């Protein structure tokens, strides 16, 4: 009996231990949940103001190749801004999340952001596979997102996501338009008088590569240009052997081929097409164009140094070697931060443009309000106000409106020459081919 | 018709590389019954290690090959000694899961070391198009096939004619018996892992010199799986047959089925056929039919 | 099943009881109350992570039945999730059905697809069967990518939030009360299943399928049943994932994800209901932690560079999986048992 009693006592002790552990756990969790009290004894003026910009990025993951330039650019530029005393005296800090293309991580991160005492007035990102999914969340929480990833579902119907350049389908349409109207008549005048140009696509078999292959762009718009559309071939996301796709395109005998990839698969397809005689060096019987966003400075290296392909871009991104003030400025910035050549992407310029839009919008919002009172709604209104943002020559200045989320419809054509990418046109305007866009044929 | 033959020839040529990857799986499986799911990552590592010596350090080709062989051999050896050998006696499921974890680990270390960008690999093989009557195929795939077959030949020689190969075959037959004849099974396991890593190196370099190097190269492992299931997990000859079948099926699928379904079919055709093979000829064309007892 | 001394199991029912002491009852009830009250006081980020864990847990419990109890490895769990998610969302958008109808439909469709890919288990086992599920992963992904006419396709599909009595369940708090009961139910079902005739047949199949067959167990139909239940759970998890994330895209359900699920099971302890819970919490938590700490790490050691710090999550995952298999193949569940045993004897460790 006595031993039994002792056991009961021990049972009670166990209850105590378990209860204590539970309390400890609660004590660990609860303070994290309670809103932290503001630091005592300081007036708001003494607290250093910091503008934290949350950034959704892909440092690793399937699309990371094309976007590594973005965060490098934002990092470099923010350092410069802070060295000069900050933006209007406010220190800028970026808080990035490596989404790795994972929606879960982005959602939990987003919940961290919106549970902060003060929601950030805006976010920056370039991961379309996450933005598309979170479109309704940005709207509900009233946080505008400025994006460099341009898939159409983000912008149509208009929400709280703002694009810096035209979407993939519009660029595709713009490139075909440029070929038909400018290049084709000059390139083969005899044939141009006789027949319509044959245009096809070899593109990546994923959301990115299929971006330009929408009905708006291919089924309707290219028809109105008087193009003989020969069809599209798709290469797998991880191409090993693309000979069949290229052979399929050879059969259709096109004059011009577009495609949307990152540098590696593009180089694979291009090499194969040279092998199969779809394209011969320096004596081009087919013009190649990569409607690529992450135009990669490695591209000439990956494809071989010969002059044989074109790249479309929406900034002067391919103009690393051009002689303009902003190009020198950016090259200087790039060099100062010891960025590797592999980051010499279109994304580096695009990242700077995104940051310039953010600063511009913040400037407009701060005309009427103090920095700490600026909310997402104010930035949204500032973005929608239609005021032009200063792009410092990286791309023509542009402004959004209440219905337009991708007002910057400029693209530029570049061509490789002696291992360098050089622009061969001035700014071109491409059609607006978002679903419901103004240039979509009825 | 000539188009059909071209497609088949192309499929056979690229199938040589698939067969090489398959062989890297079979070598290990034959001796130690470990299915290496990380084989694609080994191929990727092979390519990038070679790139590092050849391009980043700018060494001459013979030195790069030498160093790459040494590095890959060490990776293979370490994998076996640190991870696989201590798992002896564990259920096979655990070992399979271990190689899956290893695949994750290799991908992570790769992305930390080389980043996500593509690397330009110097074209080691002569490029261009060859025509044979009405059939045309690319020269570098042909060289790929030839080198893969040479690697196969060397492997077969090692396996069939040398003492080491005899020991390997004995080990594959029965661990206990092999041990009782004085063969160090542990050494044999290490040797097979080194051999597999070197086969992956060859495959990685071949693929790199055709289409450059990217992190996506690891997906080649996924082509290796249907290959070995076609041929049977224990069969070296089956590897070549499986590789060629997969290569041909991919090419034919891409040419004739893609227009009907809208693209990308070549990625799944090998898997669909593999499923059918699993249902009707479960142990592959050349695999050993297992007789099980309680 | 060790019990404190003094607790005597004098009937079979008592011996098999999940909860046998009063303290355990107290802990269970208290824990459940604490769990279901937690949305009231924990912050939003933690809540969203808990929701994610609960969704993952459902898929992991399914995988646990197939891999842990029946011994059939599956590399297609993420794809089966996608089947459930897409079926549920397509039924909702095409036919306007409510989420409470589409959820079971999604689960059921995933279950049937799972059975389809489990058919080769008639002839093969081991890696060969793993290959069949690997094929499932790729075939399902391909179908989702190339059937825009069905409502799938490469772009993200928006999923409307579930509704309950006119209230749209969009917030994390609301979703918690949808997801968590199902996660608890899934765990309970798994725990219970393995104590039934079916569960014992599963375990017999895992331990030695020939012996099981000799004993009169129809191994093939039990394997198919395991596939069905596993994919059923995955389908439910997928439908819940769609409702929670309010979007679906084939790229969210990749082979890496399937491997990650297996990893969670390994770390928790294969073939243990508690292990699945531990593994899910540990691995999802670790992933979130590493992701959140990467920016902090780079501010401490900027010379590492972004690429390295961001790769750490992958390295950590691979390393944890490998190390667990190497040094503690029975997973966290085994550690938990050891801890319980030593706690039971404390302070007299004999």
Structural account:
The complex is a heterotrimer of chains A (442), B (294) and C (350). By secondary structure, chain A is α/β, with parallel strands linked by helices. Chain A folds into 2 domains: 50-165 and 325-384, Response regulator (Rossmann fold, 3-Layer(aba) Sandwich), CATH 3.40.50; 168-313 and 409-429, Response regulator (Rossmann fold), CATH 3.40.50. Chain A has helices spanning 2-33, 64-83, 103-114, 128-141, 168-187, 189-194, 215-224, 243-252, 263-275, 299-303, 325-336, 346-365, 376-384; strands at residues 50-57, 91-98, 123-125, 145-147, 161-163, 198-204, 228-235, 256-259, 287-290, 310-313, 410-417, 420-423, 428-429. In chain A, the strands form 2 sheets. In chain A, strands 6, 7, 8, 9, 10, 11, 12 and 13 form an 8-stranded mixed sheet that branches. The model of chain A is unreliable at 1-9 and 30-44 (pLDDT under 50). In chain B, 72% of the residues lie in helices and 3% in strands. Chain B has 11 helices and 2 strands, in the order ααααββααααααα. Chain B has helices at 2-32, 39-56, 61-84, 92-114, 139-161, 163-173, 175-180, 185-211, 220-231, 236-261, 269-280, and strands at residues 129-132, 135-138. In chain B, helix 1 (2-32) packs across helix 9 (220-231), helix 3 (61-84) crosses helix 8 (185-211) and helix 9 runs parallel beside helix 11. Chain B starts with a helix and ends in a 14-residue tail after the last helix. Chain C is mainly alpha-helical. In chain C, the strands form 2 sheets. In chain C, strands 1-4 form a two-stranded antiparallel ribbon. Chain C has a two-stranded antiparallel sheet with strand order 2-3. Chains in contact: A-B, A-C, B-C. At the A-C interface, helix 1, helix 2, strand 2, helix 3 and helix 4 of A face helix 2, helix 3, strand 4, helix 12 and helix 13 of C.
């Amino acid at each position: 009996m006595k031993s039994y009693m002792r056991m009961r006592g021990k049972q009670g002790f166990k209850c105590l231990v378990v209860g204590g552990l539970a309390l400890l756990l609660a004590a660990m969790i609860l303070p994290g949940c309670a809103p932290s009290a503001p630091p005592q004894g300081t007036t708001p003026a003494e607290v250093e103001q910091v503008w934290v910009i949350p950034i959704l990025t892909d440092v690793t993951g399937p699309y990371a190749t094309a976007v590594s330039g973005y965060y490098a650019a934002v990092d470099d530029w923010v350092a410069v801004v802070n060295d000069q005393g900050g933006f209007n005296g406010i220190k800028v800090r970026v808080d990035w999340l490596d989404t790795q293309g994972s929606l879960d991580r982005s959602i939990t991160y987003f919940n961290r952001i919106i549970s902060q005492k003060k929601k950030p007035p805006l976010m920056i990102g370039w991961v379309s596979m996450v933005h598309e999914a979170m479109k309704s969340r940005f709207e509900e929480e009233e946080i505008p997102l400025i994006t460099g990833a341009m898939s159409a579902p983000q912008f149509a119907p208009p929400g709280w996501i703002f694009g810096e350049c035209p979407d993939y389908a519009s660029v595709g349409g713009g490139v075909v338009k440029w070929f038909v109207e400018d290049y084709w008549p000059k390139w083969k005048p005899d044939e141009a008088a006789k027949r319509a140009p044959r245009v096809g696509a070899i593109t990546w078999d994923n959301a990115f590569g299929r971006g330009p292959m929408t009905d708006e762009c291919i089924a309707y718009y290219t028809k109105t240009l008087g193009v003989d559309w020969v069809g599209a071939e798709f290469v797998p996301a991880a191409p090993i052997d693309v000979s069949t796709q290229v052979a399929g395109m050879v059969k259709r005998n096109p004059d011009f081929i577009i495609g949307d990839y990152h540098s590696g698969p593009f180089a694979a397809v291009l090499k194969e097409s040279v092998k199969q005689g779809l394209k011969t060096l320096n004596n081009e019987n087919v013009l190649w164009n990569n409607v690529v966003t992450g135009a990669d400075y490695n591209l000439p290296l990956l494809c071989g140094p010969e002059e044989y392909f074109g790249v479309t871009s929406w900034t002067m991104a391919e103009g690393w070697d051009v002689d303009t003030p902003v190009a020198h400025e950016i090259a200087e910035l790039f060099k100062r931060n010891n960025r590797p050549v592999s980051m010499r992407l279109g994304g580096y310029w695009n990242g700077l443009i995104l940051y310039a839009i953010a600063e511009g919008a913040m400037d407009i919002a701060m005309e009427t309000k103090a920095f700490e009172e600026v909310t997402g709604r104010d930035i949204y209104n500032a973005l929608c106000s239609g005021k032009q943002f200063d792009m410092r020559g990286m791309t023509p200045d542009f402004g959004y409106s209440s219905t337009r989320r991708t007002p910057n419809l400029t693209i530029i054509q570049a061509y490789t020459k002696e291992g360098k990418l050089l622009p061969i046109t001035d700014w071109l305007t491409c059609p607006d081919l978002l679903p419901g866009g103004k240039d979509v044929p009825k | 018709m000539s188009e059909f033959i071209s497609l088949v020839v192309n499929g056979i040529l690229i199938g040589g590389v698939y067969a090489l990857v398959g062989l890297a799986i079979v070598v290990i499986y034959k001796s130690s019954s470990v299915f290496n799911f990380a084989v694609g990552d080994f191929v990727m590592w092979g390519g990038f290690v070679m790139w590092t010596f050849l391009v980043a350090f700018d060494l001459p080709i013979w030195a790069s090959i030498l160093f790459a062989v040494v590095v890959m051999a060490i990776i293979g050896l370490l994998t076996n000694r640190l991870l696989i050998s201590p798992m002896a006696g564990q259920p096979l499921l655990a070992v399979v899961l271990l190689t899956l974890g290893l695949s994750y680990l290799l991908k992570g270390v790769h992305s930390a070391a080389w980043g996500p960008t593509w690397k330009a690999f110097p074209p080691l093989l002569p490029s261009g198009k060859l025509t044979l009557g009405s059939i045309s195929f690319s020269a570098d795939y042909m060289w790929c096939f030839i080198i893969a077959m040479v690697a196969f030949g060397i492997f077969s020689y090692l396996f069939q004619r040398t003492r080491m190969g005899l020991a390997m075959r004995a080990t594959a037959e029965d661990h206990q018996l092999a041990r009782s004849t004085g063969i160090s099974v542990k050494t044999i396991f290490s040797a097979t892992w080194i051999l597999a890593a070197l086969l992956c190196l060859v495959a990685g370099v071949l693929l790199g010199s055709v289409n450059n190097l990217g992190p996506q190269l690891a997906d080649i492992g996924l082509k290796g799986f249907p290959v070995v299931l076609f041929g049977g997990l224990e069969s070296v000859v089956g590897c070549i047959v499986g590789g060629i079948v997969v290569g041909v099926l991919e090419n034919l699928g891409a040419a004739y089925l893609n227009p009907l379904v809208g693209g990308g079919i070549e990625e799944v055709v090998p898997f669909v056929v593999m499923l059918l093979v699993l249902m009707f000829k479960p142990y592959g064309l050349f695999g050993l039919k297992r007789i099980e007892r309680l | 099943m060790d019990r404190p001394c003094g607790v005597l199991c004098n009937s079979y029912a008592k011996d098999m009881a999940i909860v046998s002491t009063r303290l355990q009852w107290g802990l269970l009830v208290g824990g459940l109350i604490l769990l279901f009250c937690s949305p009231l006081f924990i912050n939003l980020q933690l809540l969203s992570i808990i929701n994610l864990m609960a969704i993952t847990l459902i898929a992991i419990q399914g995988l646990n039945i197939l891999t842990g109890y029946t011994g059939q490895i599956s590399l297609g769990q993420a794809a089966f999730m996608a089947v459930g998610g897409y079926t549920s969302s397509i039924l909702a958008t095409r036919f306007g059905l409510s989420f409470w109808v589409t959820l079971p439909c999604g689960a059921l469709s995933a279950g049937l697809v799972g059975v389809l890919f489990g058919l080769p288990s008639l002839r093969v086992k081991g890696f060969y069967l793993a290959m069949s599920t690997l094929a499932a992963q790729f075939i399902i992904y391909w179908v989702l990518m190339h059937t825009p006419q069905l409502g799938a396709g490469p772009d993200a599909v928006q999923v409307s939030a579930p509704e309950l009595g006119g209230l749209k369940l969009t917030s994390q708090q609301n979703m918690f009360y949808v997801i968590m009961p199902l996660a608890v139910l899934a765990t309970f079902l798994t725990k219970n299943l393995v104590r039934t005739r079916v569960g014992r047949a599963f375990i017999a199949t895992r331990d030695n399928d020939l012996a099981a067959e000799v004993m009169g167990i129809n191994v093939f139909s039990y394997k198919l049943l395991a596939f069905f239940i596993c994919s059923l759970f995955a389908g439910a998890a997928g439908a819940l994932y769609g409702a929670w994330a309010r979007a679906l895209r084939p790229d969210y359900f990749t082979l890496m994800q399937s491997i990650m699920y297996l990893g969670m099971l390994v770390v928790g302890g294969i073939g243990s209901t508690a292990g699945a819970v531990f593994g899910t919490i540990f691995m999802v938590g670790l992933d979130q932690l590493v992701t959140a700490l990467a920016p902090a790490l780079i501010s401490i050691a900027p010379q590492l560079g972004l690429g390295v710090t961001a790769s750490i999550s992958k390295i950590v995952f691979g390393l944890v999986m490998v190390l667990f298999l190497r040094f503690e193949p029975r997973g966290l569940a085994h550690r938990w048992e050891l801890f319980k045993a030593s706690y039971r004897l404390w302070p007299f460790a004999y």
